[in-house]
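Hi R.,

Here's the chain you asked about this morning:
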Amino acid sequence: MAYIGQNLDRFSNVEKLDAITPATATGAGPYNLTKGSVAFTPSSADTMVVSIDGVIQYGNFSVNGSTITFDAALSDSNTCDFIYHMGTGLLSTPVDGSVSTGQLADGGITPIKFSTSGISAGNVIKVNDAGTAWELGAASSAEIYGFSKDSNGDLIVTTTNQGQDDISSATYATFDDVLFSASGFTFSIVNGELIATI
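And here is the predicted structure, written out as tokens:
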């Protein structure tokens, strides 16, 4: 049965590059890698196979961008027979919704892969109010709540106001009690009881 597309023997994506011209003046390199006289950047040295004077070279050279450098110097008398780039094989794009947690390697997603679009300093990833999705939110800053009483016995709560205010050591020493917590607490007294709301 006929089919449309590449033959199976082309799925490996092997690419033949232009042969380099070894030179005593250039020695080990670097030599420019080209394909059809256009600069070519291989995926890595491990994907390259080079033949010099009929001897396959593999693992005894490095690539940097679109150049190759050998471990030993070449000379005018050497001949480069061929250079092959072995490619990465058949590549296809997964269908939307076809990649699930099972296909992702443990630790495969790192912070460098996260988009920084629309975020600002101090943002955190949090669950939305409906509890149905993740969203960006403001991180709570560390807060100090100092409790003391005035001359009438009324409660006084002094805070660092989410980092905007400082509490001196002298003021700190007057506190009857101190709470270290996230910002956003509101204190009130109801029926003689202290109520903390966040």
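One quick note: The CA atoms of residues 144 and 180 lie 5 Å apart.

Cheers,
M.
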